[in-house]
Amino acid sequence: MGILFGGVASLLYGLGDFVGGEATRRAPAAANVFGAGLIALPLVAIAAVVLGGTASAADWAYGGTAGMAGAVGLVILFAGLARGKAAAVAPAAAAFGGAVPVAVGVILGERPSPLAWVGIVLAIPAILLCSWVADRSGLPGGGLGYGIAAGALFGTYTVLISRTGDASGLLPLIPARAATLVMMVVLALGGIWRMSSAIEVPKGLVAAHGVLDVSGNVFLIIGLRSGSLALVSIAASMYPAVTVTMARFFNAEMLRKRQVLGVFLTLVALALIALG
Fold first, then answer.
1. How far apart are CA 87 and CA 133, in angstroms?
2. Per 3-state DSSP, what percentage of the chain is helix, strand, and coil (rounded to 5)?
């Protein structure tokens, strides 16, 4: 059941990432993340209160720290999708976002099956094939660095949010969302982006991203509560298929044969890990 919830989270993340990438073509990534956070925070707060739960100080701390990691990861991902290629950035982010929880899960005592390890090994050349593109922006590997950095932070988010207690329900998502807003303000005060650019964001796209992303987070935390960290996190990392498909049909982003092979191998690798 946990893997099923992870799969639903993956679908929502894929749609949200595409929408977020589109928004970042029109306004700074940090401004879009800030706007999405303003939409998502009251939604998740209402859901958490309605469903109820009892959160400890540790649950709130894990949620807040996870939110900070996820916020920076989103900014990096959207910047990569806007400047690079979805077929390079999204799979790299997904692979590394899944690899971090797998590594932590093994350290904590989880033991993936041989089939799962085959999938992990297969993911390495898959990422290289996806990233091997001719990029007019001049970004090395079509934005591979963006995907790796974003994925590492997404994986950190998953690990931290998985440490919250079952009794806390969705309450840890409240500090996670609040931390996103705080992090964006800190980046603005540090001169990384201008708060005034928040008025430039495409409100419809940003609102859609906020709803999709927080919905994905809800399904992810439910999945982690009912399944293993390693397998659920990998199931939730299969969103590149959605992101790349959306980019292909809505932006007419052409994929070379090696890219198609890379995306296919990425999905096979993730599937093998999930089945294992």
1. 9
2. 80, 0, 20
